[in-house]
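REVIEWER CHECKLIST
Item 1: Sequence provided? yes
Item 2: Single chain? yes
Item 3: Sequence as submitted:
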Amino acid sequence: MRARFFLVSALLAATPALADETIVVTGTRNGGKLLDLAGSDSVLSADQIQFMAPERPTEILNQIPGVYIQPGSGEEHTTAIRSAVLTGGAGQGSQLYLEDGVPLRSAGFGNVNGLYEANIEQAGSVEVVRGPGSALYGSNAEQGLINIIPRAPTDHLSGQADLEFGEFGLYRQMGTVSDYGLRLSAENSHNSGWRDDTRIDEQKMVVRDVWGNGADTITTTLSGQMLNQQTGAYLLGVDSYLDHVRAKTNPIPNAYRKADSIRAQARWQHDFGDGLELSITPFTRYTAMNFLMHFLPSLAIQTNAHYSFGAQSMLYKNFAAGHQVILGLDTEYTDGWYTENQYLPTFTLGKSVYPHGLHYDMNVQAKTLAPYIQSEWQILDHTRLTAGIRVEETAYAYANEASTGIFGLFQRPADRSDDFLTVTPKFGLLQELTPSWSAYLNLSEGARAPQVTDLYELQNKQVIGQVKAESVGSAEIGTRGTLEGVTFDLAAYWMNKNHYFFRASNGLNVPDGKITDRGLELGLSTPLAYGLDIGFSGSYAEHIYDFSLADSTRIASVRKGSEMPEAPHAMANTRLGYSFSPGMRAELEWVHVGRYFLDNADSHSYGGYELFNLRATAKLNDWLSLRGKILNLTNRPYADRAAITTTGIDEYFPGTPLTLIGGITASF
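Item 4: Structure as written out by the authors:
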């Protein structure tokens, strides 16, 4: 109740506003003013990213209303955008992660922890769309999308080198250099971890080249990352994270994750003149991962990989009076493989038998074909209509490379093919109230084909072929603008999800789940007196089951109208900044995550947390600056994530204690 009062008070105190010159590319893949978009889009600039110097995506992305990323151990995380925290296939496939408009992974081969594959730390900007993507984006752009845009190259010599050191063996080196339209950015980081056996070593790089000649522009991006980490497992037991000694331990010290990826894309844009422009972006990617599944009783080792190639083709036509039509076609081919092996001896847990040896060995080929059209019409002087539709077909060809049948808890289907067709329309209406203030209505639908793991990584009681394509209908109204120096972005939304799929605790499929998501989101910032400024983002949301399902255990039973687990009602982030002088700034951040339930029956809960972080930067001269930050300023014990097992045991990822980090940046 206190959190709800806080958010309502902030809404009442707000003044309409938003920076009207902010440019975004995600809405049309071609650039436009944020003020002109009929939907909830947010932009993190290079300056914001540089000041935050995030160690994890959580640090900076959770400053956006409606976004909640729970860090796990190391680079692991789960993401919620206008949703409860989703795991399994839903967690892999409900948010779309992109690098300059191209998905980091193929649609059916998602990764719950997929944000670590992108170089957010050195990005030129990050754009976040909350709610279903436009007709330009297909499978996985269901709850929202995050587009990481690399830093643009320069035509003159420039560069930057960063060194960062902190507690728990943290050190990080980042560097970027650019000239002649070419930029190379690279990062190397190490963290010994504050918990036992939680070391992280990670490397990232991005090469970006922009070539232009008359009507033609070619933007080429090559990127990749390598991750080698020891993974911290859950702490078990009610409030176990409050014990400082236990919080530092790792119950499964041999848990690990190794992951590599490499991606390449080249966007060719040709201007024919007379408002006609063509864009073709061929791309290819490869990703491989090997890790111990510390969150399962089997402690099996999973190896997965996939390579893919495809193209995004778009034809833009701008007409007189501000009208625009975009015709597009996305195509993609993927070849992926997956194995799971248990090295523990065969054992029985409850009624489930976990057999020693091979659980799965499969190969899956996927083909995607998606034509679409999106149009914008200036129907009145200050009224703009957006309408579009996307038709997407995803076809899987699955081959079982092991024997077919049931092996203890696990089921290996025979070779089969599956095909999914989704249609996602969008309708938006934008009204310009003043040159710096607009309001909008956005009606859209998102969808996703099932993840490969949902279809073919089955347990013994699951029914083969029951999984359907998931769909989300969304309606939102919002306003954004700039008035009296205050920036403002306010949105209210309602979403209804059909064919929500998960595996019940009794091992059976739940292919026809229904969910309702509804909420309010607010972002604002304004300068204050005496060099002070304040920024706020907050949300109040409800994520409700819209169906009932009895289960063999009470905590896993679903009751229509009950709240989904790991779905805080209230979240808020407030930042009070002070600029001592140009180039010298300090910022105190307050993070609030409200109480949430841990089980379907709403019988177990976690109380949430309040955190304070302090950051500061000081420019010493034209080329040298210092920065520092203190995370968890009050050294409060808390849990980054709280969950519960099917047998009713509370489990936690304990949050990082007070941590000091400092850095130095040299620029030229």
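Item 5: Key structural point noted by reviewer: The two ends are 51 Å apart (CA to CA).
Item 6: Recommendation: ____
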